[in-house]
Design brief:
With 283 residues, the chain is α/β, with parallel strands linked by helices. 31% of the residues lie in helices and 18% in strands. It has nine helices and nine strands. The chain is globular, with a radius of gyration of 19 Å.
Length: 283
């Protein structure tokens, strides 16, 4: 395994956060230039804007054109599909995702269901229909309702060509638990949200206003190492994008994996780092 380390892609949920201008992006960076700069720091990003509106092929083509070859995207499936059950949005979304797939820049699709999406016959049938409609693209499914936590969930999803998202969330009685619940997955996708139980029912970014300490990140390094025999690759997405927490945690996780596990290779950003401005005298 040491001669062929498993690639680990680390990134954030979204990249165009206004409060990142200054501490992450140089002051004055326009929204159009953000993703190109982001690609000098990370090899991969989860696009969340597609959750709120079905993208067009042209929009995704323009986004990809601002990134270097090798940079990867995952796309959130629109909530009109996952939360509202609108059948008519499925084909346009899949066709838009085709644009990234043809450029070899689509890591996969993230199908996140709401906490109200319980494990019922009707919901299982809907998941079957959606999964068929998103083929041939890879799809990771994130459940929020506790009732999906079943012994054979991973195998049931794989029968449908799906993988389970592993999450880091607070320990609350009615939500799907944290950790790698499907230990034999080949393409691990981890979304790190928050452990702040007191904020979980609060609106917007407050829910994800949390900084993951080293002991939590080291937990994930251990889990990653335990899953190594089955893995072909892994993705880690930090969704705690309030302030610069996601960027700081993502950088630190990369350091920990590099330091603690020779079985893995943290994928480098595909774009060269921007040279720092020197002084007039080159000091």
């Amino acid at each position: 395994m040491g001669s062929n380390p498993i690639p680990v892609w680390i990134g954030t949920a979204g990249y165009s956060w206004p409060d990142w201008v200054g501490p992450f992006y140089p002051r004055g960076t326009s929204s159009q230039r953000m993703v190109g700069y982001y690609a000098t720091e990370f090899p991969f990003v989860e696009i969340n804007s597609t959750f709120y509106r079905v993208p067009t092929e042209g929009q995704l083509a323009r986004l990809a054109a601002r990134t270097p070859e090798g940079f990867q995207f995952s796309l959130k499936v629109p909530r009109s599909i996952s939360h509202e059950g609108q059948e008519g949005d499925l084909d346009p979304f899949r066709q838009a995702a085709d644009e990234l797939a043809e450029r070899e820049q689509l890591a996969g699709l993230v199908l996140q269901f709401p906490e109200s999406f319980a494990n019922t016959i009707q919901h299982r049938d809907w998941l079957d229909w959606v999964s068929e409609g998103l083929k041939p693209h890879p799809v990771w499914v994130e459940f929020r309702h506790w009732s999906w936590h079943r012994l054979r969930l991973g195998a049931w999803l794989r029968d449908r060509g799906l993988d389970l998202v592993a999450v880091d969330v607070p320990e609350l009685p009615n939500i799907f638990p944290r950790g790698i619940i499907s230990p034999d997955t080949k393409r691990l996708y981890v979304r790190l949200h928050s452990r702040a139980a007191e904020n979980w029912d609060r609106p917007g970014k407050i829910r994800y206003d949390y900084f993951f300490p080293d002991e939590v990140l080291k937990e994930w390094v251990r889990r990653l190492s335990e899953a190594a025999p089955q893995l072909t690759e892994a993705y880690f997405v930090f969704n705690n994008c309030h302030s610069l927490q996601a960027v700081t945690n993502a950088r630190r996780l990369a350091e920990l994996i590099d330091a603690e596990s020779s079985a893995f290779r943290v994928v480098s950003p595909p774009a060269p780092a921007r040279p720092k401005q020197g002084t007039l005298f080159g000091e």
